[in-house]
Amino acid sequence: MKKIILLGYMGCGKSTIAKLLSNSTSISYLDLDEIIEKHENSSVKNIFSERGEIYFRKLEHQIFANLIQNPDSFILSLGGGTPCYSNNHEFLKSEGVISIYLSASIPTLYERLLNSNSERPLIANKNPEEIKEFIAKNLFDRSYFYNQAQHKINVDGKSPKEIISEIETILV
């Protein structure tokens, strides 16, 4: 039984890397946000706007806790805020869990998020300068939780293939 959990700030590549890692390891891939969206029959963006962040975070915790208790092996891509609420960071140290923080610098995150901000509830209505400031502050606030992961991989300037290769050395 192996649960590989990928965490990090939005835009660091969690979902992309999880899918590619699933292909290379033949371990099934799950995306926590996608599971929540199916459960609610609504997008994360709509859940935030219609039900609020507190509702979303409670649901996120409940689903994450259920997944950790599941006996199956999987690769799980977390939402960017998941480790920061409801003591979810404690799950990163659970038995049978391999947690990996995909770390990206503020310039890398800014570049990746600038053109996708309308899809992301936390930065949807911000201008470019506000986005950069938000990323910097938010990343600082979340760094304690992200650093609870057992492993950390810096993704700046690396191809997905290089990142997968680094993760595979951790899994051996």
Brief summary of the model shown:
This protein has helices at 14-25, 32-40, 44-51, 53-69, 106-113, 128-146, 160-171; strands at residues 3-7, 29-31, 74-77, 97-103, 151-154. It is an alpha/beta fold. Strands 2-3-1-4-5 form a 5-stranded parallel sheet.
What order do the helices and strands come in, and which of them pair?
Elements: E1 3-7, H1 14-25, E2 29-31, H2 32-40, H3 44-51, H4 53-69, E3 74-77, E4 97-103, H5 106-113, H6 128-146, E5 151-154, H7 160-171
Shape field: globular
Report helical residue fraction: 40-55%
| Sequence of strands across the biggest β-sheet | 2-3-1-4-5
In DSSP terms (H or I, runs of 4 or more residues), the helix count works out at 7
Task: Specify Rg, calculated over alpha carbons.
Answer: 15 Å
H and E string? EHEHHHEEHHEH
Which regions contain 5 or more consecutive residues with pLDDT less than 50?
A: none
Strand content: 5-15%
